[in-house]
Specification:
Strand order of the largest sheet: 6-8-9-11-10
Number of strands: 11
Number of domains: 3
CATH topology of the largest domain: Beta-Lactamase
Shape: rod-shaped
Oligomer: single chain
Structural class: alpha+beta
Largest sheet: 5 strands, mixed
Helix content: 40-55%
Strand content: 15-25%
């Protein structure tokens, strides 16, 4: 014994759309915030590099061009040189300007700064860091201290005579600039969060409005039954969703027509088959009680056989109409219309004692299924025989007219009543003005003719015959290169 699987929880299209929108927006906003932070940090690095290069360049120029105001000569002692230069400078925030004389432990060190840095302890109060800078062989570098990073650049003054080695150092504490970039990053994240919240509300409302027709389609489809196909979806706007609603309504129209035709078809078929079945059953019952009369038994067998043949024809016609819905119902190939018309005329003459005429033939070639077209034309000829009496004229022909091929059967019978013209091509419909073999057909002949014509991409038309009667015409587009006779 198998157990039914529990219903799986489904995420609605509205929620999926909103989730994807939020994921994409979150990724985009995060990328914008991260990129902005990276750009700000890169710009800060460039500004620090320019500032260090500018300060060291100014000091180098001062060493090269500056003079001692006490002697009026070039500086020979680094101590007054550094003191004079530092006294004339004004450091930027987070910047330190230092003058170092003598290596640690080798002599006095002069340290000056114009402003306290905003982030981290001053480099001037960190002897270990000063020693690392002084001893470094490079002109620039970065100190990674526990209390913050320091970027530095220096200009070394070589020792001369009794004067010790000295250095001018520019130190910058980038933590303040980095904090600005981080503040902007945090602000962008906060703005992004607010934007996502607003997007959630707006997206939920917009997605609901856009998907409303889809929900209507689902609800309408859930309430549709074979007995009730009348519901339709209101169409609003001209977007793809509105097109979906129009397509769905069109499908419902076709389904409603198909189910109506199916019900009508079943009712008519049941009615048409019920009569011969009743006749067969009644005569078989009578034959049981009249077995002594050979003549009655023979008559009963004849009637039963005729009714069974009629049922067989109805079933064959129904099967033929069912095949007409298939794409391989016809297999067109090049056919000479003159030969086809002549063949139809020869076969039609055997249907009854009428005044048969081959009116005209078209000298053209067309892509047709000769067997199916012959079947349709013979059916029209049989219909003409049923509506005429011996000696009346029946004409068969084909022609090219107004860019179309026409194959026709014209009779001189009573014609078709106006109230019948609109329904005679439907299944199980008969005209009211029948003559000849009355009541022998099931009302499927003209429906078969219509199916064959439409399968060729054409149509069947009913026209009046000059002088009285009815003309049935199979119409198809004229092939390229067809010539008039």
């Amino acid at each position: 014994m198998t157990t039914a699987e529990p219903p799986r929880h489904r995420i609605s299209a509205r929620v999926r759309i909103l989730l994807w929108l939020l994921v994409v927006m979150a990724a985009a906003l995060a990328a914008v915030a991260t990129t902005t932070r990276s750009v700000l940090l890169r710009d800060a690095d460039h500004r620090i590099d320019r500032l260090l290069a500018q300060e060291t360049g100014e000091f180098t120029h001062f060493v090269r061009e500056g003079v001692d105001p006490r002697t009026g000569e070039k500086f020979t002692d680094p101590d007054p040189l550094l003191r004079l230069f530092l006294s004339r400078q004004y450091a930027d925030p987070d910047e330190e300007l230092l003058g170092l004389i003598g290596r640690a432990g080798a002599g006095p060190a002069t340290k000056e700064q114009s402003r306290e840095p905003r982030s981290g302890p001053p480099l001037a109060e960190d002897p270990a860091s000063l020693k690392a800078v002084f001893d470094s062989s490079g002109a620039t570098g970065t100190l990674h201290r526990p209390d913050g990073e320091v970027r530095w650049s220096k200009v070394v003054i070589k020792a001369s005579g009794t004067h010790p080695e000295a250095a001018f150092v520019v130190a910058f504490h980038p933590a303040g600039e980095q904090a600005k970039a981080n503040d902007v990053f945090t602000m962008l994240l906060a703005i992004s969060g607010v934007a996502l919240l607003m997007t959630t509300g707006i997206g939920w409302a917009v997605a609901g409005r856009i998907l409303r027709p889809v929900r209507l389609v689902r609800t309408t489809a859930a309430h549709l039954t074979e007995q009730d196909l009348t519901q339709r979806i209101p169409v609003q706007g001209r977007d793809d969703i509105a097109a979906l609603a129009e397509t769905f309504n069109g499908m419902l129209d076709r389904l409603e027509r198909a189910f109506a035709a199916q019900r009508e078809f079943v009712d008519d078929a049941g009615h048409e088959l019920r009569t011969p079945i009743t006749i067969v059953r009644g005569h078989l019952e009578l034959m049981d009680t009249a077995t002594e009369n050979a003549a009655e038994r023979e008559e009963t067998i004849r009637i039963v056989t005729e009714e069974l043949d009629r049922m067989s024809r109805i079933v064959e016609d129904l099967l033929l109409l069912a095949k007409a819905e298939r794409p391989d119902f016809v297999t067109p190939e090049p056919v000479q219309l003159a030969e086809l018309t002549a063949d139809v005329f020869v076969k039609a003459r055997a249907l009854g004692e009428r005044d048969w005429h081959l009116a005209e033939v078209a000298d053209a070639e067309a892509d047709l299924d000769a067997q199916r077209v012959t079947q349709a034309m013979v059916q029209l000829a049989q219909n003409a025989v049923q509506h005429t009496v011996p000696g009346q004229r029946v004409s068969i022909g084909s022609r090219l007219r107004e860019g179309q091929i026409e194959l026709y059967v014209a009779d001189s019978g009573p014609g078709v009543q106006p109230q019948d013209a609109a329904v005679i091509f439907e299944r199980f419909r008969r005209g009211t003005a029948r003559r000849g073999a009355r009541g022998t057909g099931a009302g499927l002949g003209l429906a078969i003719v219509k199916a064959i014509a439409e399968s060729h991409g054409g149509r069947v038309e009913l026209r009046p015959t000059p002088g009285g009667g009815a003309t049935f015409v199979l119409v198809q587009a004229q092939p390229e290169g067809a010539a008039h006779p």
